[in-house]
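Ticket opened by: R.M.
Priority: normal
Category: complex prediction / small molecule

The reporter submitted a protein together with heme C and asked that the result be attached to this ticket for the collaborator who will pick it up next week. Submitted input follows.
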Amino acid sequence: MVRTIFITLVLSYIGYSFLVYNYTAPAAEPPELAKAGMDIWQSKNCQACHQLYGLGGYMGPDLTNIVSDSTKGAAYAAAFIKVGTARMPDLKLTDEEVNKLLAFLTWVDKSGRSRVAKDQVNWYGNYQIDKK
Ligand code: HEC
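Result attached by the on-call engineer:
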């Protein structure tokens, strides 16, 4: 009896360990265009001045949700990226590079929110994701 329990437990342990260490969660891979945009984001060091999810440099604004921002959006972002402003440098990017960056920012936008708006917080302090 004791032996049966022992063997069952050992086998369960081995089986469970096998499952745990072999399980790889399917990662949500970004589309190719967004990946290409991420390469440009990194090589041009946009993060030195901008934040994603609140992290990064603080010279320019957070860009996590610029694409879905009703007062801004993709065309607005493209204009800044393409020509810069007095404060943001013109990085001399081609239209193709700008499109890739927009694909990256669109993908980032869908992955989370940088700021919790007041109306997303319940009266008891919890964050409600479904509300915008
Ligand atoms: C040297 C710092 C610096 C770098 C590098 C930089 N930016 Fe900026 N960016 C800024 C500043 C400052 C602003 C605000 C400009 C203004 O309001 O005149 C800005 C504004 C923007 C905006 C408009 C944001 C808004 O909400 O109004 C976008 C989009 C943007 N940058 C994208 C990028 C991308 C993409 C890169 C990399 C290819 C990049 N920036 C690199 C400094 C930088």
